[in-house]
Design goal:
This protein is α/β, with parallel strands linked by helices. The protein has a single domain, classed as Alpha-Beta Barrel (TIM Barrel), CATH 3.20.20. The chain is 41% helix and 11% strand. Strand 5, helix 8 and strand 6 form a beta-alpha-beta unit. Helix 1 packs across helix 8, helix 2 crosses helix 10 and helix 8 runs parallel beside helix 10. The protein is globular. It starts with a helix and ends in a 25-residue tail after the last helix.
Amino acid sequence: MSREEVRKWLHENDPLRLAELYSQADTVRKNYVGDEIHLRGLVEISNHCLQNCAYCGLRRDNVVVERYRMSDSEILECAYAAVSRGYGTIVLQSGEDYGLEPDRISCLVSRIKEETPLAVTLSLGERFPEELASWREAGADRYLLKFETSDDELYERIHPALPNRVYSRKGLLRVIKDLGYEVGSGIMIGLPGQSYDALINDLFLFCEMGLDMIGAGPFLPHPETPLGQDATYARLPEGEQVPGTEEMAYKVIALTRILCPDANIPGTTALASLNREEGRKLALQRGANVVMPNLTPGTYRRCYEIYPEKLCFHEDAEWEHAQLMQMLADLGRPPGKGSGGRRGGSCTCAAKEMLL
């Protein structure tokens, strides 16, 4: 699929034409990764963050948010809960929190690997290569780090660099891959200042990087951030700015599946927050094959407010699990029996055979 073909799909609004795109993506998904839906239990272990990103409610300058760090015993209880629900992976996520000492993370990873059959995914922000190496040695299987946008100028505008930054995010992703992790990354759709050219570059960068997991969800503004307080911040003129709509998110998921057929692609929480009734379900019918149910205890999940009113913000993990099992039954798609890993192989442009 050429860049111009991708551009036409991104601008397509005819429901019948889009139905063809979604059908193609679903066929590619079935042929390359099968019908299983992989469930990866998310645990938001800390909302401390030293970054000051213009789009995130956890940003350093947000004095409204109540900060927390979960204890080791609380995190391990979440891991045991993931096992009891049949999940194959636990995802430990936080803000960029250097209060989470490297040795502590290594010990946690080791205990989870010793005491459960779970794969361990870490999503702890931009950390030093030696820390990443020690966590890999402790048994961590995957690392998630979104590059957010391939537009370097836009990235620097919304994500001010820390004084000790050694690598760009894209450079750090290469380090993570070289350490032997399965690598996950992704973008926000409709980020103010995101042009269609930039979004197309994002899609083809997914292929070039050979990512194992690719997340693409709509940008949702948080009121305690510059992007949530200034509607004109970085925004392009109408017609040039990518909209952060539900439909655009489905287009990007479908195109990502066609361009990167064997990648794991989640139906993101941000998308499900836009359409609480069917967001995840529609994503799974349009190319996605992963869901990340939230295992964070309720006392903490309400403080992990990257954007307002996240899905299951007020519900508990048991309620969400029951909803997911019903959704899978409705779709006739089984939960994955393993961790849903994708060792070896790289994203290939199978879309060359897909015609407009």
